[in-house]
Structures are given as C-alpha cells and as structure tokens.
Amino acid sequence: MQVSLLDLKGQYAQIKDEVLKEINQVCESQMFILGEKVEKLEKEIASYCECKYACGVSSGSDALIIALMAEGIGCGDEVITTPFSFFATAGAIVRVGATPVFVDIDPRVFNINADLIEEKITKKTKAIMPVHLFGQSADMGKIMEIANKHNLIVVEDAAQAIGSEYEGKRIGSLGHYGCFSFFPSKNLGAFGDGGIVTTNCEERFKKLKIFRNHGAEPKYYHKFVGGNFRLDALQAVILSVKLKHLDKWTTDRQKNAADYRAMFAKSKIGDKVLLPMKAEYRTRHIYNQFSLLVENGKRDFLKKALNDAKIGSDVYYPVPLHLQECFKELGYKKGDLPVSEETALKILSLPIYPESTVEQREYVVSTIEKALI
Ligand SMILES: *Cc1c(COP(=O)(O)O)cnc(C)c1O
pTM of the prediction? Predict the structure, then answer.
C-alpha cells in the first residue's frame, strides 16, 4: 500500500466538470483580473466566515502583508506573534519593516500561549498576530481581551484554518483582520496562489481594496504605496466551486482524525506518541494537519520508517522562526522559547486528507506500531 501525505487528484475528480465549465466561461470572457467573479467569491467567503467583508488577494502571505500595510504598521513597530508557524507569519511583519516579537506556544495545542503575551507588550507594540495552526483556533477570547485592554490590532493568520471556530464563532471574524491562504494544500485550495482578507470594518475593507491595487483611488491617483496584490478570476471561480464542498471535506477530515484517535488508542503505541490535543476552549478543528509528538529522539527515525513503507509524512516545522538565520539580528538564541524548540524536534504530521481511506489509516498506525514497539 501507498499513502501520500496529500493527494489532490481525488478531489479534482469530484469537481472536474463544474470547474472546467467555469474556467471556460472566464476564458470566453477574457476578464482575468478582479471583476465580478472575484466579487462573488468575496461575498461567499465573507458569509462563510461570518464577516461583513472580504478582499481577495494574491496569496496568504500577501493577505498578512496588506493587513499590516492597511494599519500603517511599519518601521519602529512591534508585532507579537508565535515562533511556531510557517515562515510567512513572521516574514510579513519584517517585510513591512516592523519587528516580530515571539511568544512561546502551548505545548499540546501548538498555538501562541496567550498567558505569556502581556509581558511582551511595550510602547512599540501595535498588533498581535495569532496563528490558528493546523486548523485549530488560537485562544481568541484571551487574545482579544488583551488587545482591547492595550489598544492593539489583531491580525489573525487563518491561512490553515478556514471554517475553524472559537466558541462557536468563525475564525477570521474575531480579530480586526482574518488572513486566509488558498495555496493548493490548504483546506480550500486554488489551482495556484491566492488568498483573502476578512474584516468587519467598512473603512478597513475600503483600504484593503486600495492597497491591493497599488494604493490607487481612483485609478492613477495614488494615496498610498500599495502593491499588486490582486486575485484573479480563474482562481475565484475554482474556489467558488470548491467552497460548496468544503463542509463535507471538513467533516471527512474530522472523521479521519477520530479514526486515528481510535486506532492509536487500540494500538500498543501508548505514550510513545502524543496525539494532537483539543484546546480547553470550544473549537471546530478543521484538521489541515494531524500532527503527532514523537518520543524523544525518535521522530526522524519514524519519518524514515514511514517513508520506507511508502507513507508520506512531514515536519511542520523543523526550525522555529526565532532561530531562522534571516532573523539573527533579532537576537534570539537557543533556549529562549523552549516549548517551540522542543516541539520542532518531536512533531510529525500524518496523511489526513478527506479522500484517504480507513485501510490507509490502519496501515499508517500499524507501521508506526511496528517502528516504535
Ligand atoms: C500557508 C501559510 C501562509 C502563507 O500562505 P501562502 O498562500 O502560501 O502565501 C501563512 N501563514 C500560515 C500559517 C500558512 O500556513
């Protein structure tokens, strides 16, 4: 048997006819940049995320950058975030000229530890950028309370978490901005790059739309220096088709996670691996990833054993952001954020995509059992 970490071909087979029809319409219209198809998607995503507005952009990374730009965050400003995320989270902060201030994570939920945020707030702090890692909401209740108390902007990095909820509320609707990615491997993936920013504030929405088009309002009159952060119509129609299936795919991911939990519980693996934990607050985990913690020193060994058995797995993420070479000047050193550093050594993500089968999961768990027992 073979199990890929992610295989999008099964998903494509389900939607192929509809998608090709929509793509054909866009080709016939020859209207490729923004336009009514993008506006339609923006309304659909806003509604899906229980937000008033959504502004389609060129990628999840650009979604983060444009949100910071629209707030005027830049040189001399600090943004508090997690060191345990995809690079773009901190990359966006540095790209606008601001300084990321890293706060360690919760050891079992993998999101920023909200109890450690307040001690890192200074006069320069302008924003908090929590990440809903692997599809589970960060502790948004505490984060918003701190932000409101200190008058900070909250930019949610929701790239991995479309449809995820915190206490019954859709993520992306809780902070001032929600930044989503449509990278193909995300739960709602385009056929290329794409992203969207949600907000409940009309002023902010207007500003986002200006910034994504070189800061022009009206055309050729530039109030700000923005960029080309536009989403194209081909991606928008593909995403509109896929959005109709997203809840079904999410339910399948949740079922697959429940399968893994039952299979691990029945196995002899015991506490040689720790399963991803649900947060204490109520969440709707959408399982962009199902990530284990593997006992000390065995992670790379297990990854190789899985690879030898033709099972895909990957390490998200091997180097916490505060220890990345490009952030040397920030002055962090090994040991500064111990939970993130230990997690980076132990974590391993397994195949969880909707179309994967029970037999495949059984094979994954039995292979792990053989490797570790
Ligand atoms: C994927 C991702 C991004 C970047 O999104 P792109 O669309 O690839 O630019 C940002 N943050 C997180 C947490 C991500 O997983």
Answer: 0.97
